[in-house]
Design goal:
There is one protein chain. The chain has 168 residues and is α+β, with helices and mostly antiparallel strands. The protein folds into 2 domains: 76 residues, Beta-grasp domain (Ubiquitin-like (UB roll), Roll); 85 residues, Orthogonal Bundle (DNA polymerase, domain 1), CATH 1.10.150.120. It has a 5-stranded mixed beta sheet, sandwiched between helices. β1 and β2 form a beta hairpin. The protein is globular and about 55 Å long. It starts with 6 loop residues before the first strand and ends with a helix.
Length: 168
Amino acid sequence: MSTSEKIVARLRVNGEDNEILVAPDATLVTVLRDQLGLTGTKRGCNQGVCGACTVLIDGVAARSCLTLAALAQDRDIVTVEGLRDDDLGGRVIRALVEGAAVQCGFCTPGMVAVLTELLEREAAPTLDEIREGISGNICRCTGYRKILDAMVHLAGELREARASRVAS
């Protein structure tokens, strides 16, 4: 099969099923942005280094520039647009905005994805765990301090909420 031939891909993105024609070598970032119009996912280095294209696939952070769309079929793909409407993802976004941790915003979608995954795994991560969690995402504007501060604050809120649920 030549790469100019298209295949049908069934992609479940942000809870919505899509059946689209894709080139066999089309990356997920290209399909998300160019075919599904989900431009929140950013195309950065296209080499899996910067983290701007990070999405969640079956709840795990994945570089969409390195993921073939055809191999993401029948999996649960969540972009920043989907995380905006998710309780935890929405809290991550609000914490970053309220903590003035968003400047140019280019890295933000990938940061939101990795931070949401981290908070799903570890409800109240430490500063070191947050540092490790975002270590694969490059931010050229913030110096990371405000991102870390916002997530430490959110982790504290989550810890308090969990403690009050346990106490009641």
